Structure formats: C-alpha cells, structure tokens
C-alpha cells in the first residue's frame, strides 16, 4: 500500500484557504475605493463589510467563484460541534413558530453586544430608520409651511426602494456586494431590491461607526452630489421659524403669558427646561384650537418629526442590545415599544393631557390623541435640545417597559396569537389549515360613535364575542377574550408559557 503523507494532506487543505484569503484581501482593498467615493473612512471596517454582505452569501454557496468555500465546507478540516445542535444554529435559523417564540422570549443585554448574524439584514433594519430620520429632518426644515401629509408624501418618494436603488447605483454598490452567485439576483428587479437594502445597511453602518452627521453627509452627497446648489440647500437648512424669531431664546415671554407659566410647571416636573418654550407650547397645541400668534400653528408637523425621532432611537437601542434577533424580530419588538398604546401610557405618566390645548378641553383624549401629543413633544425636544436629550428621555420613559412587553408577549397581538394557536392544530394530511373566522354580528349607535360587536369562530364553534369602536378593535378584543376563555383548546399557549418561565429573569436597571 502506498504511504499516506499526513503533511501533504494538511498542505492541501491549507492551500485551499489561499483563494478565500486572497478574495478577502482583494475585497477590503476594493472597500478603500468605496470609502474614497463616500469621502469617509471607517474606524471599524467590519461594519462596512457586514453592510455589503447579502444574506445569501453565507447561507447558500453558489457556483464557480464559491467552489473553494464549498470544498472547505464539505472536505476541509473537521470542526466538531459539541452540545445542543439548536444552540449552534440559533443565529442562522429564523423561521417557524417555535423559533419565533424562543427568540422573542429573550431579554435584552445590559451592555451593547455584538451579534453573530453575519449578513446585513440587521443593519438594514437600522439603516431604514436612519434614512427616514435624515429625510424627515431636512424636509421638515426646508419646507416650513408644508403640512404633515405633504411632508410624508415627499419622504415616501425619497425613501422608497426604487429611489434608494438609484442612490446605490451612484455609489456602485453592486460592484462591492457579497452575494451567492446563483440565479436569484440575475434578474434586474431582484438585484436592484438587494442594492436598495444594501444602501440602507450602509447608512446603518455609517451611523454606528460615526454619528448621524456622518450618515447625513454621505446621504446628502449621494442624493445631490452632481448639483452643488441643491446640495448646499439640502445641507444648510434654516432653523425653525420660532427659533428664527427669537435666536437667543424666548423665555422672557413666560411672565407675560399664563399658558407659558403653566408649561414651565411641566418643565419642572420632567426636569427639562426649553430654550424656546414656545416650541413646547406648539407641541401641546391641537389643530382644533386654530391659529394663534403664540405658537404660530398646531403640533401636526411636530408629530411627523417626533415619530421619526422615536423610530431612530428605538431602532438603535434594539440593534445594540438584542444581538440574537433578526430583522423581523426587531421590527416586532419596535412595534410593541413605540405603538400608540405605549406612547399614551408614557403621556399619562408624565401628566401631559393636563397641559394640552384643544378646542374642546372637556372631551376625553383618545389613545391616538395622547400618542400624537407625545410624538409632538419629542419633535419639539429634538429641535430645541438635540438628539442626546431625546435619547435620555427614551432611556427613562420607554426602554424599561420593554421587559414587561416581552414577558406579556405584547409584540404578538391577540389576532396573530389566536391564528398561530389554530395553525398548530392543523391536520397532517396536507389539507388547508383551519383559521379563526370573524363576523360582525351587530353595529350600534350613530356613524361617528358607532360600536361594533364581533364574534370569532373556529371550526364552526363560537369562541367569544366582544365589542369595539371599530371593527378592527372589536376583532382584537374578541381574539383576546377567546384566548382567555378557550385557552384549554390550544396547547401552544402552554408551550409559550413554559418558554417564558424558562427565560424569565430580573430586568436590568438603567443607570
């Protein structure tokens, strides 16, 4: 028998690493060209590499350019994995109800933690909020007389995927993207969608590596780099009209207006003093009150601004402290953290409704009205104090509520939870699964204050009946009641409770 030289085998296996190593070095050399195009040098180059890595690159090796990786994976040095197999693949698998429940049951880390997910979907989640924030800030100041609807329309035109793909093409991101060489991205529409996502991930990487100013500058140069006049107009936007009227502050008007005196009491209660207190007054002015010379308008535009401020801050926090969550999981957590219900609770805790100025002060403020009031306050706080104060406000008023939301699974609305429970009871014969059916059984009252009664059925049996001021609200209430009174029919509820009991821990305290 011929002698087998163990050293030759080792040399061959190590030689197979050379193409991968050379490709890695060439890629980072190319990234220097991208940095020079953006006129920005990354302090952490890994963030830029992560932003350029498509999800298909790591999970599905492709054809010729990836043969070396295929050979290393299938024939290379064995890397035994000890312990539970589910632990090793926790950062790659993201489908299935059990995976969803397990991941969403995890609490956030007390300190910023690096994720083991090696593609750009998480950065895309953050970058989406960054792009929306940058666009909203500039539009808000450039068009001081445009109402909320017009601002939202302009923003939608800028942040839509078709336009982001154009911006990505301006940076030639398709030449730097890492993706599997399969048939998926051969179609132009699929490639442009991936380029738009890559551009959002790049904005997220710029935000993490530098500041929001770095992402803002690169975004502006990419958007208007070929037109110096438009670029200057975009970058040098004016201050808020109330700030222009009183450049050094307007607190000298407090002694002359009872409204401002009352709002100064609110400032004392929350520990924040505004330089331009009329901005705070405008945040509390409902559109039903009409125009007045004190605030120069209502709080609708500030709502538009405050919403995007809250989206950015919450997205950054979730990205940094929930490393095991994929993009979809982070979106679910964010929706539970910044929804109308949570915002209205914060509004009530701070006593904001007491200071609201409305056309009909005796009427009760709805949940959405209180949420809008809080968003307007955040918008005014950002204009007057900057992003750092908004960060501190959210760290005190919003983030501590997240542990309770995870424990109660508030990220999963009652209708979704009921449908998930019903799907787990599907038959194994391949038939279409049974799902809950909602029927409006009655509607009461006039059009403006109508109450709807909805019944929910599963497999022909009525589970519960509930009412609400809208059909959607009534359906949600019916689903919640069905889960409460018919929980014994769904083993999935007990499974979810066991998972929460295993992962439950004492939430960390914010310092």
Automatic annotation (TrEMBL):
Segments crossing the lipid bilayer: none
Endpoints of the signal sequence: none
Reactions catalysed, as given in the entry: Endonucleolytic cleavage to 5'-phosphomonoester
RNase III domain: residues covered: 31-211, 263-386
PROSITE patterns: DS_RBD, RNASE_3_1, RNASE_3_2
GO molecular function per UniProt: metal ion binding; ribonuclease III activity; RNA binding
Predominant cellular place of this UniProt entry's protein: nucleus
Entry EC no(s): 3.1.26.3
Keyword Hydrolase: yes
Keywords (A to Z) from UniProt: Differentiation, Endonuclease, Gonadal differentiation, Hydrolase, Magnesium, Manganese, Metal-binding, Nuclease, Nucleus, Repeat, Ribosome biogenesis, RNA-binding
Compartments reported by the entry: Nucleus
Domain DRBM: 413-488
GO cellular component: microprocessor complex
Primary role: Executes the initial step of microRNA (miRNA) processing in the nucleus, that is the cleavage of pri-miRNA to release pre-miRNA. Involved in pre-rRNA processing. Cleaves double-strand RNA and does not cleave single-strand RNA. Involved in fertility. Required for the function or synthesis of the let-7 miRNA.
Protein known as: Ribonuclease 3
């Amino acid at each position: 028998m011929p002698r087998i030289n163990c050293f030759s085998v080792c040399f061959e296996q190590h030689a197979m690493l050379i193409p991968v190593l050379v490709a890695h070095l060439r890629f980072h050399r190319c990234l220097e060209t991208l940095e020079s195009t953006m006129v920005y040098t990354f302090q952490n180059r890994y963030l830029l590499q992560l932003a350029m890595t498509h999800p298909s690159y790591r999970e599905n090796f492709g054809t010729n350019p990836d043969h070396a990786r295929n050979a290393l994976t299938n024939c290379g040095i064995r890397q035994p994995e000890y312990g539970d197999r589910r632990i090793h693949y926790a950062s790659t698998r993201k489908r299935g109800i059990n995976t969803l429940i397990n991941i969403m049951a995890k609490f956030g880390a007390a300190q910023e933690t690096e994720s083991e997910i090696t593609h750009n979907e998480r950065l895309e989640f953050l970058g989406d909020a960054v792009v929306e924030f940058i666009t909203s800030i500039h539009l808000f100041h450039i068009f001081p007389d445009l109402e909320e609807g017009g601002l939202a329309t302009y923003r939608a035109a800028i942040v839509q995927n078709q336009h982001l793909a154009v911006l990505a093409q301006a940076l030639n991101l398709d030449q730097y993207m890492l993706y599997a060489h399969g048939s998926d991205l051969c179609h132009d529409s699929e490639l442009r969608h991936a380029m738009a996502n890559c551009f959002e991930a790049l904005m997220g990487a710029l935000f993490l590596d530098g500041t929001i100013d770095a992402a803002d500058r690169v975004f502006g140069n990419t958007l208007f780099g070929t037109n110096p006049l438009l670029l200057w107009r975009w970058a040098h936007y004016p201050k808020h009209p109330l700030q222009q009227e009183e450049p050094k502050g307007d607190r000298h008007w407090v002694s002359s207006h009872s409204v401002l005196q009352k709002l100064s009491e609110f400032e004392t209660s929350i520990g924040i003093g505004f330089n331009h207190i009329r901005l705070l007054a405008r945040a509390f002015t409902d559109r039903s009150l009409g125009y007045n010379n004190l605030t120069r308008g209502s709080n609708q535009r500030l709502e538009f601004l405050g919403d995007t401020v809250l989206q950015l801050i919450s997205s950054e926090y979730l990205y940094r402290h929930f490393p095991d969550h994929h993009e979809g999981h982070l979106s679910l957590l964010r929706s539970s953290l910044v929804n109308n219900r949570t915002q209205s609770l914060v509004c009530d805790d701070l006593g904001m409704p007491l200071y609201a100025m409305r056309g009909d002060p005796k009427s009760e403020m709805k949940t959405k009205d209180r949420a809008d009031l809080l968003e307007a306050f955040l918008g005014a706080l950002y204009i007057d104090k900057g992003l750092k104060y908004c960060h501190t406000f959210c760290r005190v008023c919003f983030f501590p509520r997240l542990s309770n939301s995870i424990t109660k699974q508030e990220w999963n609305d009652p209708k979704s939870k009921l449908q998930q429970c019903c799907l787990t009871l599907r038959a194994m014969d391949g038939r279409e699964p049974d799902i809950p059916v909602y029927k409006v059984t009655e509607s009461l009252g006039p059009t403006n204050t109508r109450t709807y009664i909805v019944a929910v059925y599963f497999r022909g049996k009525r589970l519960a009946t509930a009412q609400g001021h809208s059909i959607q609200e009534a359906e949600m209430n019916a689903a919640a009641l069905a889960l409460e009174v018919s929980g014994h029919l769904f083993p999935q509820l007990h499974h979810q409770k066991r998972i929460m009991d295993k992962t439950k821990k004492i939430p960390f305290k914010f310092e």
